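2024-03-11 09:14:02 INFO worker-7 job=invfold-0412 stage=load source=structure_tokens
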């Protein structure tokens, strides 16, 4: 047995597995003289967790740097109000300590309207009834069910953390039977016809938008999959592209048409292997910028007069993926081949396209009584 660095928190938190199976947690930090120190926090059997150790380490560092306790600790010691924003701050500090790379996207996870509604409230005053009324309120304002569910789930996550850190002594108010998850209809029936695809191509001036659409309609890749295509992912000889599926945490192969392969051959001629295709840069093209560009392209062409919540008829970025699969089916592609090209883990996801296949029974019905 020995000290093991936590994969979750790096070398900041260590644990020692004892012969009886219990675990003793330690934190490491540099003191005011820049000397590495290790401090015992306690045993797992006594309720100590890695999250708690990380918080304690933040408190120690705060004392070293500022000569005072972190604000949330001061409030706890003085038995003052602990606001939801305090819990959110702790949540993001833990996230920052446990991940590498850009932390800014994690801070954006705090929904602005949730922060505005409850951010400055004492967490003990945020009752199930208030959460239920908040859910009704944003639903009446036209927020999408998926967005509403996310906001409520995030609030529940903050309460879970408060309970774990003994900052909240009651059951999680979000887990009440009164707070029900809204039904989300993700089945989009809309796909682009050949005429609409040609119209879309003819009206695009932005090179990045046009290439994004070409790649999406050729591979059926999801939004982030397309944005993450790099030169090294492209095999021009076999007209193949390796796609990263972040939803299923896997890589898979997609194919491109000859015309696109010829264009890419010239496009990537002088680019390094790690260059991202969209944007032609070593840094990934910003997701929000592309989302805005795509919305400004698709809305005037296809969504004029449609309600923002009309998910069945509105054309959005995901419609390109749906278009890819729909036209495969209409061209007689076997359903299991479509599943492979879409990287669906469950054939049930692919079966909705079976009705578009030429042998789906349409011709038999047409000639039924002739």
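2024-03-11 09:14:09 INFO worker-7 stage=emit residues=370
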């Amino acid at each position: 047995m020995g000290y093991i660095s936590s994969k979750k928190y790096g070398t900041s938190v260590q644990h020692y597995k004892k012969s009886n199976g219990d675990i003793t947690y330690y934190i490491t930090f540099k003191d005011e003289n820049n000397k590495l120190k290790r401090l015992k926090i306690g045993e797992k059997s006594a309720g100590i967790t890695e999250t708690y150790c990380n918080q304690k380490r933040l408190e120690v560092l705060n004392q070293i740097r500022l000569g005072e306790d972190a604000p949330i600790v001061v409030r706890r010691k003085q038995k003052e109000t602990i606001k939801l924003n305090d819990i959110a701050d702790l949540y993001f500090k833990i996230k920052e300590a446990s991940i590498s790379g850009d932390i800014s996207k994690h801070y954006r996870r705090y929904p602005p309207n949730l922060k505005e509604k409850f951010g400055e409230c004492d967490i003990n005053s945020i009752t199930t009834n208030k959460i239920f009324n908040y859910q009704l309120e944003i639903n009446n304002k036209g927020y999408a069910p998926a967005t509403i569910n996310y906001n409520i789930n995030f609030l529940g996550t903050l309460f879970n953390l408060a309970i774990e850190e003994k900052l909240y002594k009651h059951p999680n108010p979000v887990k009440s039977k009164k707070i029900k998850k809204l039904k989300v209809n993700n089945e989009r029936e809309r796909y682009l016809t050949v005429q609409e695809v040609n119209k879309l191509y003819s009206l695009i001036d932005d090179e990045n938008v046009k290439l994004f659409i070409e790649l999406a309609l050729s591979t059926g890749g999801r939004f982030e999959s397309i944005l993450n295509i790099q030169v090294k992912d492209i095999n021009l000889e076999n007209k193949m592209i390796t796609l990263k599926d972040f939803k299923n945490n896997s890589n898979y192969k997609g194919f491109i048409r000859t015309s696109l392969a010829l264009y890419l051959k010239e496009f990537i001629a002088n680019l390094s292997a790690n260059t991202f295709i969209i944007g032609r840069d070593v840094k990934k093209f910003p997701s929000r910028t592309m989302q805005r560009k795509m919305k400004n392209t698709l809305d005037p062409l296809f969504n004029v007069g449609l309600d923002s919540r009309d998910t069945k008829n509105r054309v959005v970025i995901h419609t390109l993926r749906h278009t890819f699969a729909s036209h495969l089916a209409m061209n007689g592609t076997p359903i299991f081949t479509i599943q492979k090209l879409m990287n669906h883990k469950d054939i049930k996801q692919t079966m909705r396209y079976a009705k578009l296949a030429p042998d789906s029974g349409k011709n038999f019905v047409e000639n039924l009584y002739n």
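2024-03-11 09:14:09 INFO worker-7 stage=report msg="Strands lie at 3-6, 10-17, 23-30, 36-43, 234-235, 240-245, 250-255."
2024-03-11 09:14:10 INFO worker-7 job finished
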